[in-house]
Amino acid sequence: MTINIDKPGQGAGPVLDIDRLKVTFATDAGDVYAVKDVSLQVNPGEVVAIVGESGSGKTVTAKTILGLLPETAISQGAVLINGNNVISVSEAKLREIRGRDVAMVFQEPSTALNPVFTVGWQIAEGIRAHAGTGGRSKVSAKEAKARAIEALRKVGIPDPETRVNYYPHQFSGGQKQRVVIAAALALNPGLIVADEPTTALDVTVQAEILELLRDLRDNYGTSIVLITHNMGVVADLADRVVVMYQGDVVEEASSRVLFAQPKEDYTKKLLAAVPHLGRNSASEGMVERAHQGGKVLVEAKNLTIEYPGRLGSPAFKAVDGVSFTVSEGEVFGLVGESGSGKTTIGRAIAGLNRTTGGSLNVLGYEMLNFKERTFKPLRKEIGFVFQDPAASFNPQLTIGDCVAEPLIIHSNPTAAEARKRVGELLESVQLPASYADRFPHELSGGQRQRASLARALILNPKLLIADEPTSALDVSVQAVVLELFKEIQQEFGFAALFISHDLAVVDMLSHWVGVLYKGKMVEQGLGNQVMGNPQHDYTKKLIASLPVPDPDEQARRREAFKAVLHS
Amino acid sequence: MNATKVSGRKQPLFYRLPVISHFRSSVGLQRGMLVTGLVLSVVFLLVAVFAPWIAPYGFAQLSDAAGPFPTQQPPSPAHIWGTTVGGYDVYSRVLWGAQTAAVVIIVAVAMSIFLGVALGLVSGYFGGWLDRLLVVIADAIYAFPSLLLAIVMSIVISHGQSSFWGGIVACSISISVVFVPQYFRVIRAETIRLKAEPYVESAKVVGASSIRIMGRHIFKNATRTLPLIFTLNASEAILTLAGLGFLGFGIEPTSAAEWGYDLNKAIADASSGIWWTGVYPGTAIVLTVLGLTLVGESINDLNDPRLRGRKKAVAGKGGPDSTAGAQTALEAESRVL
């Protein structure tokens, strides 16, 4: 044990050395490789990003570093952390390594913290667990708390002396992630493994967390293994990038080189698929709002939607005095962070939420007096694409049955007619008609979302509501689905309300963009104007926070927007 | 790299049937438990079906060509498990008792499952005052000791004494009164969960009627746990029937053979060293309940990917497209949760 304390050459050799790692899982479908052959090294003070799409093995690799794989997994090769091979060491030794030599930051801060203990206790837990091992003496409760306060101060939690006694629910999402990072830092590990540390956070919060991670590296020389699918985050933070695909390392290069001159086809494809703010804008070249001659399909005037509060607490205003219109053939992009009320508006238009004030007129129907019976005939004019394509299909029905459902409900087609129409629709979303006989789980995420689009369009609706249709998809799949959406919109000519948290995605599709913040519409205008010349402070901050997939440009932006971000 | 390479087409119907699919996905101790349970349950069912052919005498038979049966006789070649104080052949009555138990299970479960599932769907889907009322009633029924309720029902229906079908129906109704809330609760909870699923919302958005949503989208997805409750309830039904019989509210020995009744009559024998009248019906109850419970518990464990054991992965082996495979398999499992 003492060998590890003053290990010779610490600081010189790599902090983490993964050598020909292979991970096999035992599943019902037989043994499968999650990681085929991965070798990589992380030097002290270096940020190495592992990027890849879902199923590339990046998270499994990260979990192997901490020895967190489930029982069904078998790993081969070597994962050396300060000379210890994580794969072969004993459970006791592994516990000693975790926290002291390597720590983990999880994706979802709200579930990574235990709600019944104070954050101080949770940070101190790691400190106390390691006290008494490796020749160190016990740590008193007072000392542990002092160190927890210190850790909280390091991650920029204001007033850590008081906050150390707070419970997780008293922090915001971004602060919770700071607390998780503080817990990881408590023992000053040389290496932090961050598994999608900003994926669950809003862009503005993401920018803060990325800045924090960068400071940690600069000030304390902590090495970071960053697992992410977001190329913007990579460009913002990473020194070196490892691209993984199907369990293999495809390409490894320094961040600048990778973004400027990707060598492998897969990397090129991946980078090309990343939406880039200001490129490929749907409103490019427009100077005034299009489609204003057509009928107004949706008109919200001072729309207010409240969710009833619990006994004694006031109602929660999800949407507060929002006015906008969507005309025939127009794509209206609704942007906002979580809790901004964007989804609530979309659901209210589809009759899934009740409105409580103002006026919302959908296809001539006033939603304030909503009755399912009277609204039902209008439903065939409205298509809806849900966020998660996996959950929006009944797992017991075939794709054909699911897609045909609106048709069967609203007209009374024969089986042959329905089949024919389903075939046509599937063809138009570029799926083979034979997929009608498959079950949803037999399709990939992108295919399912295309089938979902087919279902929404089968009755030729006038209005399509798409609620974050691509946020559950990988970037390369997202690019294909967005392209398809654009083509189909032009072909069918329906009006669309496109809801997303991703500015770049909204800009690609929408002619007119509205920005929501805490239930209020703070700005609306042509896509290129809102993105290029934002007027409202919040919009400015939102755009400044969005990392662009280009390290040099991102570094420039970071400097330029520093003032905006800290306002 | 799409999913079809791994899970491919649906497996033949036979392999997707509840117990068979469970058997195929089990390994080690879990498979042992399942097999033990299945063997016991199958033996129970076979005996129930073939009792008239296997049993040497009728359940109410007191004499044969050789004259009346001796009473309280220890096991002998003529009466291999002995005879009771009333002169019944213990072996025959235990075999016939399986039939009574099986009929009670079927009638009781059939009566409660339809009502419970229908109420659960309606209550969970519509919510509101109907839901609250039904939940209160279900809770109130829970508060009664089930045996007390069964006794009251038995008295109300057949004044405590009855013929074969009278006894069966009284017993089944009293059991189903206790079981309806169980099915109701399970299906209601599932329905409430499924109601918020995007595919149910997407059906709402396209204008599907409530009945269509319940029947087509929720029902099939909500009933996955039913085989489990069925097996567990079946064993409880047997225990309730035996309890009723033991307390004297069962079926007359002349109408049907009933393990609980026989146990009751064996109380006095136990102190005088006559073990065979009690041990055999008692063992029959224990083994049947054990068998059904083992099947139920195994199904429960196997339904949950976190509890299900698997063969260890063999290092250095794996399919060519295995990454996509792992992903799909893991996704499929996480959806089950």
How would you describe this structure to a colleague?
The complex is a heterodimer of chains A (567) and B (337). With 567 residues, chain A is of the alpha/beta class. In chain A, strands 6-7-8-3-9-10 form a six-stranded mixed beta sheet, sandwiched between helices. Chain B is 69% helix and 1% strand. A two-stranded antiparallel ribbon of chain B has the order 1-2. Chain B folds into two domains: 3-303, MetI-like fold (Orthogonal Bundle); 305-337, no CATH class. In chain B, a hairpin with a 2-residue loop joins β1 and β2. In chain B, α10 (226-246) runs parallel beside α11. Chains A and B meet through β1, β2, β4, α15 and α17 of A and α8, α9 and α14 of B.
CATH T-level topology of the largest domain in chain B: MetI-like fold
Low-confidence stretches of chain A: 1-11
Biggest protein-protein interface? A-B, 56 and 49 residues
Which architecture of the largest domain in chain B per CATH? Orthogonal Bundle
**Strand line-up across the major sheet of chain A:** 6-7-8-3-9-10
Number of strands of chain B: 2
Oligomeric form = heterodimer
Q: Summarize the helix and strand pattern of chain B as letters.
A: HHHEEHHHHHHHHHHH
In helices, the fraction of residues of chain A equals 25-40%
- Give average pLDDT of chain A, whole number: 85
Structural class category of chain A = alpha/beta
Tally of DSSP β-strands of chain A: 20
User: What coarse outline of chain B follows from CA principal-axis ratios?
Assistant: globular
What's the story with the biggest beta sheet of chain B?
2 strands, antiparallel
Our count of helices of chain A gives 22
Distance between the termini of chain B: 24 Å
What spatial form of chain A do the alpha-carbon principal axes imply? Answer: globular
